[in-house]
Write a structure and sequence with these properties.
The chain is α+β, with helices and mostly antiparallel strands. Helices cover about 30% and strands about 30% of the residues. Strands 1, 2, 3, 4, 5, 6, 7, 8, 9, 10, 11, 12 and 13 form a 13-stranded mixed sheet that branches. Helix 1 crosses helix 2 and helix 3 crosses helix 4 (about 140-150). It is globular, with a radius of gyration of 21 Å. About 40% of the residues are buried.
């Protein structure tokens, strides 16, 4: 027997909701956030109009879903935190149907996902390239994506991560932009997450640049600090840089780290009025050169939206040895 459970139905609901992913058999070898993460993320966004659901079958929790409306995208609801048993498509169908009913009741005209609260957080299904799993990327079983399609969702915005073993070629390709930026007085320095100025500047740059992203909506400075800054504080930022103008004002940054002997370019952005190949090439060159000088020969630009100008930085350096593809899905109600 299948039963839908909401937070008001059980005082232990939140504990059950947060623990469910790690209890699913197929998730035993999959990178997952700690169970406390889900409750923490929800607590940082108390103002969001949302509902949580658990599906239980014969007394056992077998699926969960979050659905919320988007303040920045009128008429749109998001589904997220989606998890379910993969051997029973009916569980997924029940979760999607329940979320869609709630979304309609809120006046939503479409549902898009997976999005955990908003697109600043876990979003996209991994759809191809499962040879390697990375904790910073979607790690869903392919069945989740297939379940969504079988329930009437269609493929929406696409993204990719491309991995190359030609880091030296990337260093050479970006050198012209680097040399030009330096000749104009730009310089580079590391990010300091203990500096209030630096963390404020990171927030300002993200708000400025991300507003053109698909399904963007703003978050507060406090919400940004409690999530993005706190999540990477204490990590190795020796390959991450601000690009700074002659007035010592950061105009962009690159956030990079090494994983599996590969330079992962996780995020790179330039303040909108300064955008162009020059500064983006310059700050990319600084990180790639440092990694190359340390002996690394592989690099990856990850989670890049299809059609994004950042994709051009990955051209003409040879074919990738691994491509991971991700998509959102959408359904009109």
């Amino acid at each position: 027997m299948i039963k839908i459970i909401r937070p008001s139905d059980d005082s232990s609901f939140m504990a059950r909701f947060c623990e469910l992913p790690e209890k699913l058999v197929h998730n035993q070898s999959r990178p997952l956030p700690k169970k406390e993460f889900w409750g923490y993320l929800l607590s940082v966004f108390p103002e969001v109009n949302k509902e949580l659901f658990i599906v239980a079958e014969n007394g056992k929790d077998v699926g969960r879903i979050l659905v919320n409306t988007s303040a920045g995208n009128p008429g749109v609801a998001f589904f997220g935190m989606f998890e379910c048993e993969i051997n029973n498509k009916l569980i997924a169908k029940e979760l999607f149907s329940t979320a869609e009913t709630w979304a309609k009741e809120q006046g939503a005209l479409s549902v898009i996902g997976p999005v955990d609260i908003n697109v600043w957080f876990g979003n996209r299904f991994q759809t191809d390239g499962f040879e390697k799993q990375y904790a910073w990327a979607p790690t869903n079983p392919i069945e989740y994506y297939e379940f969504a399609l079988s329930c009437g969702y269609i493929q929406d915005q696409g993204y990719s991560s491309k991995f190359f073993d030609t880091l030296g070629a990337q260093v050479e390709r970006t050198k012209v932009g680097y040399d030009l930026a330096v000749s104009e007085g730009y310089s580079f320095r590391h990010l300091d997450l203990d500096s209030e100025y630096d963390t404020n500047r990171l927030y300002e740059l993200n708000i400025d640049s991300f507003r053109v992203n698909y399904l963007y909506e703003p978050i507060t400075r406090e919400q940004y600090f409690k999530t993005h800054i706190q999540f990477i504080k204490g990590s190795d930022l020796s390959l991450s840089y601000f690009i700074v103008d002659k007035e010592n004002i950061p105009r962009g940054y690159v956030y990079c780290f090494i994983e599996d002997d590969c330079l992962i370019v996780k995020s790179m952005l330039i303040q909108r009025e300064y955008q162009g190949a020059k500064l983006s090439s310059a700050v990319t060159h600084r990180a790639c050169l440092e990694a190359y000088n340390r002996g690394y020969r592989k690099g990856a630009g990850v989670l890049v939206r299809d059609g994004n100008v950042s994709d051009k930085l990955r051209e003409k350096i040879g074919g990738p040895y691994l491509v991971q593809r991700y998509h959102m899905v959408k359904k009109e109600l």
